[in-house]
Amino acid sequence: QVQLVESGGGLVQAGGSLRLSCAASGSILSFNYMAWHRRAPGKMREFVASISTGNYTNYRDSVKGRFTISRDNAKNTVYLQMNSLKPDDTAVYYCNLPGVNWGQGTQVTVSS
Questions:
Q1: For 21-46, how does the pLDDT look when each residue is reduced to its tens digit (9 = 90+)?
Q2: Cα(37)–Cα(5) distance, rounded to whole angstroms?
Q3: How many CB atoms lie within 10 A of CB 66?
Q4: Are strands 46-52 and 106-111 parallel, antiparallel or unpaired?
Q5: Can you give the pLDDT at residue 71?
Q6: Strand 56-59 to 18-24 pairing
Q7: pLDDT at 4 (0 to 100)
Q8: For labelling, which of 17, 41, 72, 92 has a CA lying 20 to 30 Å from the CA of 79?
Q9: What pLDDT score does 54 carry?
Q10: Which of 33, 26, 48, 32 has the alpha carbon at shortest distance from 105?
């Protein structure tokens, strides 16, 4: 069973940037779809971005133009580049591969 470990979170001021990584313990070549989600304090987990076959990407409206999802099959890693961060982006960020257990997530805190 593939396991996921998210990293790269931290405390950043509004307008700053962070790059999140999601390292899988096994090959991600067989996964046609990968995604990032987040859960803000007191809220439900929500979709942030996905990447699928042919490097087709999809984003929630509030992060379009600021976030970029990518994958590196050789490193079995999925990334989320986050620019122009806002306090509303504060959340625990999780990556998701179909059929794989959720990781522990990585905390992102954006101060105003």
A1: 999 998 888 889 999 999 999 999 99
A2: 14
A3: 15
A4: unpaired
A5: 94
A6: unpaired
A7: 94
A8: 41
A9: 87
A10: 48
